[in-house]
Amino acid sequence: MTEYAAKKFLQMLVTVLGIVTLVFFTLRLIPGDAASAMAGDTLSGEALERLREQLGLDAPLPLQYFGYLGDLLRGDLGETITTRIPIAELLFRALPITLSIALATIVLAVLISIPLGTLAAFMVHKGRRWLDNALTGAAMVIDLMPPFWTALVLLLVFSLGLGWFPASGQLNWNDPSSIMLRLALPVIVLSLSQVATLARITRTAVLDVLNEDYVRTARSLGWSELRVLFRHALKNAALPIATVVGLSFGNLLGGTVIVEFIFTIPGVGNLLITGINSRDYQLVQTLIVVYALVFVLINFTTDLVYRALDPRVQF
Amino acid sequence: MADLSLSSVPAASASFREALGAPFRSGALFHGKVRIALLLLVPILLLTVFAPLLPIQKPLETNLRAMMELPSIQHPFGTDKMGRDILSRTLAGVQISMLVGASVAAIALVSGMVLGTLAGFYGGKVDRVIMTIVDIFLAFPSLLLAIGLVSVMGTGLIPVILAISLADVPRFIRLQRSQVLSLRSRAFIDAARTVDASQFWLMSRHIVPNTLAPMLVAASIAAANAILIEASLSFLGLGIMPPSPSLGNIVRDGQMYLEQAWWISTLPGVVILLITIGLHFLSDGVRELLDPRARR
Amino acid sequence: MNYQARLANTMATTAHTLLEVRGLRTQFQTGSGIVTAVDGVSFTIERGERVAVVGESGSGKSAMAMSILRLLAHPGKVVGGQVLLEGRDINALSESQLNKVRGRQVGTVFQDPMSSLDPVMRVSKQMVEPMMRNLGIKRDEARAEAIKWLGKVGIPEPERRIDAYPFEMSGGMRQRVMIAMALSSRPQLVIADEPTTALDVTIQAQIVEVLKNLTSEAGAAMLFITHDLGLVARFAHKVAVMYAGRIVEFGRVEDIFARPCHPYTQSLLGTIPGTTMGKHERLPQISGLPPDMRKPILGCAFKDRCAGVHERCHAEAPALSDRGIEHDAACWLPKGLDSVAMLAPERSARAVVESAGTDKVIVELNALRKQFSTSKRMVVNAVNGVNLRVHRGETLGIVGESGCGKSTVARLLLGLEKPTSGDIYISGLAQMVFQDPASSFNPKMTIGAIVEEPLVVKRQGNRTERSAKVRELIEQVGLDPSHADRYPHQLSGGQRQRVAVARALALDPSVVVADEPTSALDVSVRAQIINLLVDLKQELGIGFVFISHDLLTVRYISDRIAVMYLGEVVEYGAAEEIFANPKHPYTRALIEAVPVPDPAIEARRINVPLQGELPSPLNLPIGCAFASRCPMATDLCRSTKPQLPNHDRARQVACHHAT
């Protein structure tokens, strides 16, 4: 197990290095550099040169690259170009918010979708399809709704119409109930599509297992259908479900950008949009690396969980 | 010699027609899911194409006497703060959506098939290089990758199409590669190899034709997905920029007036939903037509 | 007295009756209609009796067995009939009441041991919990009992193996676990659904012995589903022959094999090459295909394939009727095909060109070796120094169990794999007929295009010449030329295998390699393909390499046989000689393991199956590869590898102790 984890960890480091490299060179190799993009048409040639020097853009590319890598290794994420605030400081405030939204969503989605998907699979297996048809149809529609639109509709109904949730306002970490109320709607919006995906996967995975020969073996030994469902089917179906939970985290991260924007939540997503709008390449570069890092870490964890669940995999 | 009585296969003529491969020729239009798809997509497509002929305002035309009006006969989707007709703007947005969807699907399909076939068929170094790059790309969630790429390439139609395509191509490469790998070990490939068929022959006659159907299904899902991502990008102000209408930026415009004029944001969203549902049914229907076992 | 009447009579009298099935009907609701898979099946099983149910795929035999305990998954459903277990109708029980019968009174062993055990649960857990419930004992008692059972079914070191996961065991071992599970709650009846089909022949022999001994020891009755008539002869007291969802013949094994009364049983018994049958006799074959079960069947279901068909068969379906003591058949003719003298399945003669005379060598393999490296830097020795020759007009049969390297030899011969060392000489061209008729054709190509492909690749002839040749080939393998426009999925398995033969013949090869060409086919179709291959060989005078695990077929079809074990040829010689007088202990064990469809022969046999399993090909022993399982092994065998003399057409044996 440890050996395997170490190997996977090394692989992950390679991926991360690949990502950093890719992001760095894509940002550098496009025509026009950060300085001219920032400046627009406002600066003269000389002023532009000064800006370049200031940003370290006058150094040869490999030097810039290794300098950047060195900074990252030391934990120095740099400063924003325009406002000169350390990016680490910004992240320290924004990342917990984004991660709380994401985690709350995953927990909520898992709690709803797994029982729902299991029930649908069980009923299909018994030849009753109505719940499955309803679930599949609803999951499809939810999956295809543009997330920003869903968010606006819910905002319209629950915040502006019914007034159940605040639509904006400060996030005060000392007041948990206000935070929960403030983050409830974004979490619900994100959960909708997660529930749709996970319920569908659960349904398929459980149904597949219910059709396996060993389920019939258990039935032939006299176990009841419910016991077979819980003892055999769910345990085996947990493997594919765990994988998908990990993977759908990626979509979830994309979704946080949108809900943070709509509900004006000062998370990483809003930081990213601000960075792009103010053409702050340093900030954008760092944030994209951070997102990828979170995603890669989640996948790494999923992989280990998968291995731990499945005795067939040799370490 | 062995007897000929084996040669009776029931309903020879019907199976013959079926075998001409032509789900597209016979019966396809009457397949349930395809029919739903067409019922959704064809009217939207027709309205979009013939929008200039409709008795509605032009998308960019303002009318200060009809600001933020509720949906009515004149303005079926209502008007916005500058008195522009939302239906007309939505239809112009649909045009962009369709263009984005089709371009992304085409780019992803073609490059995915070429690179995926190469990786799967030749294996070894080619495979390793292609798949390493693919894995790095797949480490980014697709919406975030598109955001990142747009932040580099700038806003506008072409960058948006390229950004979304780049996020999709790795998925297509992976799908094509796994198909090629499973086909490569099939006995009919071995049979062709025993008569020294060239690699080009194997790929063009045996492998590519058998991978096409699932790739087409994936492409229509990718089109729906691309439409959603374009709308999201434009909504975040990173895609198609105003005043050119796109479904995303119309919704964005309306966001500020959500309380006063709910229709600006909500109705274009419904249109996006109808299009993506249509595409989804299309891909499902096509898959069932091409593979009767897919029904479950 | 007809069957039903007699049933009604005997019902009250026999206290020996354990299970009585009456008018069982099972349907599957499919997208294209209702399939009545089991259509009014009735039979009885006495206490301690072993009843076999034989039939081809689709005959409803498995559905019938699963219906007894209602173990069918949706959309299968038992729609009628009674299942009386000790006089109680268990078909009328509720699910929870039936759960008290399942596993407790009736144990079940399934076909595929690889998938029948929960992969993420230890064997101990899967065994112990049902025993605690069914026998009402404590956990450690149950565990001790489970270990005892594992030992009884022949699992070495049961105390240790009980805590293994299923994936850590071979297929044979898993099937032993299944048997231990089924028997551990001391059931009165064991239902075994093709329990050995997925296993190799020597393992099959072991499993069959275990099942037979342990059930009779416990006094349990058994319902044994199989398609292998040889196993029936070895194993069963009584046999039910199923066709299209019904029992067409039922009786004591000796009766059925000696005096079959239903045309289907009669034909089926004829299609299997016996131990003495020569190539000059054609195998009797059953023409046509089983009926489409989605459509209602008018009259007798077998009428379209029956030589004795007459008007009454089209109008009415015959019911089971009395043919002797405990022997019933469902046919209007009292003795089936034997009633009409001319129609008795006769073995038509075939002109045999004496082929052994040609001395031209067309294939020669010299010291052929093939190693595959696995991921962990281990080397699998798939083929380990094979010398073989095929002469013009000769059929070489290669037999051996899975993992013996026979298929790798075929792939090397065809150039699909590169040998690690050694060389291959082929005069002319080698072509292949593949095992699985489903995957050997490109589904997007028509039959015509498939047969034509080799000609196109080799640029032979113009379009018209090629299409003429394609037509000729398709006719040559016994298909109608109109098949050229069809697609593979529109043909039956047997027809596809004919197409595979046509494709192999397109370039006039000097040798055709057939790798298990009949193993995916049903018995009745198998004979058609074997006849075709033998006929073609006589007609064209080409060489054949026939690879199979089916010894009876190999003996029938081959001139010479090579027996392979762990990548080596251990015995080689003329087919009849090898069967009449096997010299290598492995050959002897292999031949003994094969059940012969003749209860008289089987009864005379002393079945001491070969012990143990195939050793891992990862690190081969220095000495004789077979030493680990050989009853005659000595120190010499373990230290020195016995060699085959090179290229001698005479009998060769690689054994220190062969006489």
Provide a descriptive summary of the structure in words:
The complex is a heterotrimer of chains A (315), B (296) and C (659). Chain A is mainly alpha-helical and 315 residues long. Chain A has two domains: 16-73, no CATH class; 95-309, Orthogonal Bundle (MetI-like fold), CATH 1.10.3720.10. Chain A has helices at residues 2-29, 34-39, 45-55, 61-73, 87-125, 130-144, 147-161, 176-210, 213-220, 225-262, 268-277, 281-309. Chain B is mainly α. Chain B has one domain: MetI-like fold (Orthogonal Bundle), CATH 1.10.3720. Mean pLDDT of chain B is 80; it is low at 1-26. Chain C folds into four domains: 1-94 and 190-347, P-loop containing nucleotide triphosphate hydrolases (Rossmann fold, 3-Layer(aba) Sandwich); 106-186, no CATH class; 349-427 and 510-659, Rossmann fold (3-Layer(aba) Sandwich); 429-509. The radius of gyration of chain C is 26 Å and the shape is globular. The model of chain C is unreliable at 8-13 (pLDDT under 50). Chains A and C meet through α9 and α10 of A and α4 and α7 of C.
Concise description?
The complex is a heterotrimer of chains A (315), B (296) and C (659). Chain A is built from twelve helices and no strands. By secondary structure, chain A is mostly helical.
Topology, element by element:
The complex is a heterotrimer of chains A (315), B (296) and C (659).
Chain A: H1 2-29, H2 34-39, H3 45-55, H4 61-73, H5 87-125, H6 130-144, H7 147-161, H8 176-210, H9 213-220, H10 225-262, H11 268-277, H12 281-309
Helix pairs in contact in A: 1-12, 5-6, 5-8, 5-10, 6-8, 7-8, 7-10, 8-10, 9-10, 10-11, 10-12, 11-12
Chain B: H1 12-19, H2 32-49, H3 86-122, H4 124-138, H5 142-153, H6 157-184, H7 187-193, H8 199-235, H9 247-255, H10 262-290
Helix pairs in contact in B: 2-3, 2-10, 3-4, 3-6, 3-8, 3-10, 4-6, 5-6, 6-8, 8-9, 8-10, 9-10
Chain C: H1 3-13, E1 17-30, E2 33-46, E3 50-54, H2 61-68, E4 76-85, E5 88-89, H3 95-98, E6 106-109, H4 123-135, H5 139-152, H6 158-161, H7 171-184, E7 189-193, H8 201-218, E8 221-226, H9 229-235, E9 238-243, E10 246-252, H10 253-258, H11 263-271, H12 311-315, E11 321-324, E12 327-329, E13 361-373, E14 379-391, E15 395-399, H13 406-413, E16 421-426, E17 430-433, H14 447-457, H15 463-476, H16 493-505, E18 511-515, H17 523-540, E19 543-548, H18 551-557, E20 560-565, E21 568-574, H19 575-580, H20 585-593, H21 599-604, H22 635-639, E22 652-653
Parallel strand pairs in C: 3-8, 3-9, 6-7, 7-8, 15-19, 15-20, 17-18, 18-19
Antiparallel strand pairs in C: 1-2, 1-4, 4-5, 9-10, 10-12, 11-12, 13-14, 13-16, 20-21, 21-22
Helix pairs in contact in C: 4-5, 4-7, 5-7, 7-8, 14-15, 14-16, 15-16, 16-17
